[in-house]
Amino acid sequence: MKLASRPDIDQVVVIISNRCRHIPGTTKALGIGVAEKIWSIYLRDVAGVRVEVAPYSAVKHAIGYFQRVRAGDVLLFCAGESELDNDAGRFSGIEALSRKYGIASTVIAASVPSLSGRATAVRGHLADAAGYDAFAAALPDHLTAKQCQEVWQICHRGMQEMNEFARQKLREVFVRLGMGNIHSISDTISGKLDQVYCVRLQCGTRMFVKYANDTVKAAQLGQASSLKPRNRLYTERRALKWLARRNDRGVRVPEVIAFEKATRTLVLSEVLPGGHGLGEDLERGVFDPEAAWKTGAFLAQGHRALSVPPFWGTTGDDCSHWVNVLTLRTLGQQSKRFPGRINGQLAELKMASGKAAQQGFFHLDYCPKNVRLNGREMAVIDFELSSSIADPACDFGFLLGQYVFYGKVTGSEEDCLQALHASLQSYRQVTGDCWPAMASRTAAFAGAAILHCLNSSMQDQARHTEAQLLDVAATLLSLNVDIGQFLQGFICSQACTEVQ
After folding, report:
1. What are phi and psi of 143, to 5 degrees?
2. Which residues, in sequence order, are CB contacts of 290 under 8 Å at separation 6+?
3. Is 59 within 8 Å of 66 (Cβ atoms)?
4. CA dist 39 to 50, 69, 118, 290, 297, Å?
5. With b meaning 16 or more CB within 10 Å and e meaning fewer, what string describes 102-132?
6. Tell me, what's the pLDDT at 393?
7. Rounded distance, CA 165 to CA 33, Å?
8. CB 111 within 8 A of CB 81
9. If exposure means fewest CB atoms within 10 Å of the residue's CB, which of 302, 372, 448, 480 is most exposed?
10. Complete edge-to-edge strand list for the sheet that includes strand 256-260
11. Sign for the pseudo-dihedral over CA of 383, 385, 388, 389
12. Residue 470's pLDDT is what?
């Protein structure tokens, strides 16, 4: 309203994006149309202001006005002061566009709190049945009590499940891209916000889709309930395209069928139809040495790869991403439940690994659930955390530690040992002289992976073996262990204990 009252402004256009807005602490969001209804209340009886809904990006829609106004007009682009301070270049091209189109323009700051942060906090009150007072207090001062109540009701009526909203948007994407008629869309893992959708077409073809248009731009690693960060989809797309060009591993990976940048939608092919996850085998105590061999070989070939491009934007971005993953895999596993020495060992591992980063292809979420099997064929999925910079010991040790975990909790230590030796042998054959320098860190990351299992939903499976697993983890974390020799001794000592 302040802008509308200025004598030098003839028309104010409020641009809102055609997106839902997540309600913090819930799996729900405010659906499309809610924002437009709310603005109609905000602007009731206010002259000279109209609302436009942008198909995708509000900023791009606003910049499009350079092609819509007449010569002699002046464009003022307004955003909150905090938004401009934290701007990532969205308004940086305004001056160049002014010269290109011959339209005078400038960017002005509104003295209001950051719209994104303020709006997110206000939405958070919707999840609290008693949150109306705080919600109403955050609304514009000129609203009456009746209007505040009206906004509250519009929001509650407009709440819907995030995943249901995503399914609606995916149907629109498939129509736009001409990808066939959809028979069904299902969640691969129920209850997740960071969801992967299985889309089955009427012709029977199945595809797997990741959608991140209506989510936050970033989320902290390790938060299983987080919304999917948009930049992970760009990373996975780049990683899969690089792998497709090499295609020399004897291991299959998904094919990128389509990527719609405007909606951040990544469509991937199904790999090994009718197959199952390696994690399902390990949970049942089934340890196949041939599959383990392939897991080690796949990682080693990636770790030895040359000329791997950055997947997160620049080499510096990949380095920053690696530091975040390293922190998650080490300090992120610390817990008051664990002996103090273990928490100290995790800090030492972070320091040692931070000095060992190198170039190559790194998956960085290489765990049994991301390995698919069908007979003698193997596939690897989920490359959202891939990087061209990392410590290879982290990638490999994270896998081996989960083998050890399942070997212990299923009482299949000897079969597990055979599989581990196969994986170690294949990895060492490819990496050659590089192995000795990373052997102890690999063992340490295997120990950290055991802690990861104990900290996650897998902890229920280890109720009767947690103390023993903590002993194993502490030994592996000592940074002076040969993982092959240690595991052989551990299995033998366990067998002797059982005989006694």
Report:
1. -75, 145
2. 376, 422
3. no
4. 9, 24, 16, 61, 57
5. ebebebeeeeeebeeeeeeebbbbbeeeeee
6. 97
7. 12
8. yes
9. 480
10. 182-187, 196-201, 206-211, 265-269, 256-260
11. negative
12. 94
In this structure, what are the phi and psi dihedrals at residue 407, rounded to the nearest 5 degrees? Answer: -60, -40
Pick from 244, 242, 210, 240: which is nearest to 228 by CA?
Answer: 210
Q: Which residue has the tokens 């066939």?
A: 180
**Whole-number Å distance between alpha carbons of 486 and 465:** 18
Q: Which domains does the chain have, with CATH numbers?
A: 12-157 (no CATH), 161-269 (3.30.200.20), 274-499 (3.90.1200.10)
The CA distances from residue 483 to 344, 400, 424, 451, 474, in Å, are: 20, 9, 9, 16, 13
| Residue 415, pLDDT score | 94
Query: Rounded distance, CA 120 to CA 122, Å?
Result: 5
Q: What is the SS3 assignment for the chain?
A: CCCCCCCCCCCEEEEEECCCEECCCCCEEECCCHHHHHHHHHCCCCCCEEEEEECCCHHHHHHHHHHCCCCCCEEEEEEEHHHHHCCCCCCCCHHHHHHHHCCEEEEEEECCCCHHHHHHHHHHHHHCCCCHHHHHHCCCCCCCHHHHHHHHHHHHHCEEEHHHHHHHHHHHHHHHHCCCCEEEEEECCCCCCCCEEEEEECCCCEEEEEECCCCCCCCCCCCCCCCCCHHHHHHHHHHHHHHHHHCCCCCECCCEEEEEHHHCEEEEECCCCCCEEHHHHHHCCCCCHHHHHHHHHHHHHHHCCCCCCCCCCCHHHHHHHHHHHHHHHCHHHCCCCCCHHHHHHHHHHHHHHHCCCEEEEECCCCCHHHEEEECCEEEECCCCCCEEEECHHHHHHHHHHHHHHHHHHCCCHHHHHHHHHHHHHHHHHHHHHHHHHHHHHHHHHHHHHHHHHHHCHHHHHHCCCHHHHHHHHHHHCCCCCCHHHHHHHHHHHHHHHHHC
Q: How far apart are CA 19 and CA 32, in angstroms?
A: 6
Query: In DSSP terms, which residues pair with 74 in a beta bridge?
Result: 104
- Residue 189's pLDDT is 83
Structure-token pair, residue 83: 């938004």
Residue 500 confidence (pLDDT): 34
Residue 222: burial class (beta carbons within 10 Å; 0-12, 13-18, 19+): middle
Closest CA to 236 of 321, 301, 159, 171: 321
Ranges of the chain whose pLDDT falls below 70: 80-90, 110-117, 214-226, 247-249, 484, 487-500
Q: Which two tokens stand for residue 492?
A: 């033998």
Q: Say how many C-beta atoms besides its own lie within 10 A of residue 165's C-beta.
A: 20
Start-to-end CA distance of the chain, whole Å, equals 83
Distance CA 115, CA 440 (A): 49
Residue with tokens 């996650």: 456
